[in-house]
From TrEMBL:
Residues 312-501 form the Thiaminase-2/PQQC domain. Its EC number is 2.7.1.49, 2.7.4.7. The keyword Ligase does not apply. The gene is thiD. This is Bifunctional hydroxymethylpyrimidine kinase/phosphomethylpyrimidine kinase. GO terms for biological process: thiamine biosynthetic process; thiamine diphosphate biosynthetic process.
Amino acid sequence: MASSPHSLVYPLEATRRRVPRVLSIAGSDPSGGAGIQADLKSIAAQGGYGMAAITALTAQNTQGVTGVHVPPVDFLRQQLEAIGNDIEVDAVKIGMLGDAAVIEEVRRWLGEVRPAVVVLDPVMIATSGDRLLAESAEAALRELLPLADLITPNLPELAMLLGESEAADWDTALAQGKRLAAACGNTVLVKGGHLEGPGCPDALVNTVGLLSQDVVVFPGERVDTRNSHGTGCSLSSAMATAKVRLGDWESALRVVKPWLHGALAESAVLEVGKGNGPIHHFHALDNGLQPREFVARLWDEARPELDAIHALDFIKDLQSGALGETHFAYYLAQDAIYLNGYSRVLARASALAPSEAEQLFWARGAQTCLEVESELHRNWLATRESSNKLGPVTKAYVDHLVAASASGSYAVLVAAILPCYWLYAEVGRQLHDGYVESGAPEGHPYADWLRTYADEAFAEATRKAIDIIDVAAGVASPAEREAMLEAFIRSCRYETAFFDAPRVHG
Ligand SMILES: Nc1ncnc2c1ncn2[C@@H]1O[C@H](COP(=O)(O)OP(=O)(O)OP(=O)(O)O)[C@@H](O)[C@H]1O
Ligand SMILES: Cc1ncc(COP(=O)(O)O)c(N)n1
């Protein structure tokens, strides 16, 4: 059948779901940090509905494993059949399997049911060093790998699956990831948790063109904590859930990695156990923030800048009509240059957006910027003397936005983006109201320009942008929220400097 754009899009759409139904087939950790207990928390934290078919019972805590009991495999089959006879499963995460008989049962079930998304975390040895897979079952586990869409081995597991020695550096790990992906025909998530040093990168690797590149690296900073019990379990089940919600592995890891970082960073508040404690899966719920609280804080920060803007000669003279034409032309020319850079930054926000609605919102914003830029050239700059040279304030402002987009954090980027909507809308509203209140004087040289400020579509887009930032702050870690605040304040200062630039540099 000839491929049409529709046939390319449809399968992706068909697998996406707002609340994914995710089944974990894994072992139980009664202390709640790893295994199915961690999986169910991760799935819920990522917005999914979690289910669990238990392969094995362990007796363990944060200090180690003291016992493993693998129930008769028939009972695992009964659990899987009970789920399969009643419930549609959107994604499956497979964790601890225990022995070869369990692996065989899971292999049989996967072959029969063929779930749309299968993530396999090849659990072999716990953080504590205790075995969770019989040595004799390693060959059977290797045979299971091709039935998964995503495999998430840590560095010792990656080496063991390839029959090689453990990678001591990131490049070797990536090369091993490529070999495993090629051998299994699926995607491998190479994890940097076991590396030394301040960085903790992860990477998605696929050698048959399923990703935007063969190797997509997600850099990350290492959290200084020993509470890493269950990070591997949590990551794999969160990925299974996010994949169904967002449609592809890269979007999923873009959301899951900052969440996991926050869960590690906030783990100390749990105070569970004396050893390697669990991570805080619901750290984002525990931020104490009420809806609108974060944006109210941003507004408090923005208010002095707004006052500073209204005190500028540029704004006062634009309002009264006394503004010199040279300064107005300088402002317009810099605005056109700025909008071009801003459009690219909005396109980056669109690329990082966690939902299609937000992706579309920023993409529309990027398009509007280019339309307004060309309108400036056509109608406002065509008849004026102005230089198209990049001014120092414009450059510094755009550089700041580009740096925010390079941070990789969607939340930080959109916080940096917001002042251009919010302060501009506010300044525009006040200028327009002032013009109307003064009786819209005849012959005001900037009357046409002041009228452009009464744009309801822009006011509506501003309200939507504020909502997006509030939600992004709600799921961000405290450190990320501080970075959002900083990026926002800096952009506010550039807004003021931008209106003052015609006086200083024009
Ligand atoms: N100290 C840390 N700081 C930040 N991220 C970390 C840290 N430790 C692990 N991670 C992240 O946690 C995830 C699991 O990585 P890791 O390589 O530790 O796997 P694992 O050994 O299977 O996990 P587990 O600790 O559950 O056995 C990866 O996304 C990794 O980047
Ligand atoms: C039931 C079960 N499954 C998986 C792990 C691995 O998790 P970790 O490597 O963090 O100990 C575990 N400890 N227990």
